[in-house]
Amino acid sequence: xxxxxxxxxxxxxxxxxxxxxxxxxxxxxxxxxxxxxxxxxxxxxxxxxxxxxxxxxxxxxxxxxxxxxxxxxxxxxxxxxxxxxxxxxxxxxxxxxxxxxxxxxxxxxxxxxxxxxxxxxxxxxxxxxxxxxxxxxxxxxxxxxxxxxxxxxxxxxxxxxxxxxxxxxxxxxxxxxxxxxxxxxxxxxxxxxxxxxxxxxxxxxxxxxxxxxxxxxxxxxxxxxxxxxxxxxxxx
Amino acid sequence: xxxxxxxxxxxxxxxxxxxxxxxxxxxxxxxxxxxxxxxxxxxxxxxxxxxxxxxxxxxxxxxxxxxxxxxxxxxxxxxxxxxxxxxxxxxxxxxxxxxxxxxxxxxxxxxxxxxxxxxxxxxxxxxxxxxxxxxxxxxxxxxxxxxxxxxxxxxxxxxxxxxxxxxxxxxxxxxxxxxxxxxxxxxxxxxxxxxxxxxxxxxxxxxxxxxxxxxxxxxxxxxxxxxxxxxxxxxxxxxxxxxxxxxxxxxxxxxxxxxxxxxxxxx
Lengths: 236, 267
Hints:
The structure holds 2 protein chains of 2 kinds.
Chain A: H1 8-15, H2 18-56, H3 65-80, H4 83-89, H5 91-98, H6 104-127, H7 132-140, H8 145-156, H9 158-179, H10 187-196, H11 201-232
Helix pairs in contact in A: 1-11, 2-6, 2-9, 2-10, 2-11, 3-6, 4-6, 5-6, 6-9, 7-8, 9-10, 9-11, 10-11
Chain B: H1 4-8, E1 9-20, E2 27-38, E3 42-47, H2 53-60, E4 68-73, E5 76-77, H3 83-90, E6 93-97, H4 108-117, H5 123-137, H6 152-164, E7 170-174, H7 182-199, E8 202-207, H8 210-216, E9 219-224, E10 227-233, H9 234-239, H10 243-262
Parallel strand pairs in B: 3-8, 3-9, 6-7, 7-8
Antiparallel strand pairs in B: 1-2, 1-4, 4-5, 9-10
Helix pairs in contact in B: 4-5, 4-6, 5-6, 6-7
């Protein structure tokens, strides 16, 4: 149902029809799968990288200005590449790891590679929020750097880390839509193939509802969890 | 340990120097500090904001690395320790802070238990020791609460308990009562005195509050611009200030009144 032939109201009505959703239902699962796996990969690697950045920071616990600068430069370079370009660049890597350059799994690699540097920066800025006094208190007690990071810095900044992770999942979700253009499947794929190339605007609309719903849900969950922790600690 | 005086000194500092370079320019914060604190006493160090008192305290457990000089705590040459030995030595030197610096992600119990938990002490032993210290500072009924819900005085009690849980020989108190109201300040000072009498712990009390020193210390030193301008018994300094330094100290007192009037939380 193209908007050029049907009225907006008719298209909107059709976007809620069972027929439309029968097309989209499998795509939802693909999107959820891609988002979940990519987010997990990004969480693990981005978090480690973020912790490393924080520790190596010239003001950090294990200051190594040289390594920090090189790492920062690499991250900034990766972040400055547009996501589309990144996906194309990573096609050979995907082919090497998954055996093909298209499909859900190969796009997970591209999405992760795109989001890890961004998330690492988010983690770094969250961890740097901790007051210097707490670190000094931990040091004065005789904690080593590992204790300070694992038992003090990370738990103390947990509410901020969770908000950062929410932002990360949402940007992964929006990237899965983009990756749809490169044969990743999912909601973005439907939106492009049917909504854009075939003028089936009711499907485009349905994808839109879904994406809005997911983003709102994720942001809501992130806020609730983060607030819950602050409340539990008597900080809100 | 050469002379008798040094023998009796538990914290002994010789010719300590420390500079910072805030804008590339040298700022001498400590200029040849000599200090002897006896075992089991509460020694007060008073000075203005920026006199270098906090830096001095932080040099003792090497939160700040001095440029030159010597520091002995209980005969241990602090500045010659390697990283591992320093971590071990820090457990013998407790520290409490103006801003309390409690871990907000942990309950009061876990805050107090933290120094033991990182040592992998047995859970039952941790529990026993935490309850012991909590009773000493009067927090037995608050153990399950998060520090965010405590008042300032209660927070400092947690800070004190956390600093004491390892049985340290020395307690560095860096403006520990400066963020508290006068009544709570007295309660905390009473607590520190009580702990000092019970356990014989040596306390170095850094403060800008003259009253705190008058109330708790036997001996004191006045720090100004990185140097001690007067050192001795609190009563002597109060009653018979020696000519030149005494005059300076009088100025110190007057300026303190103004400082406190201007901004009650001068660091």
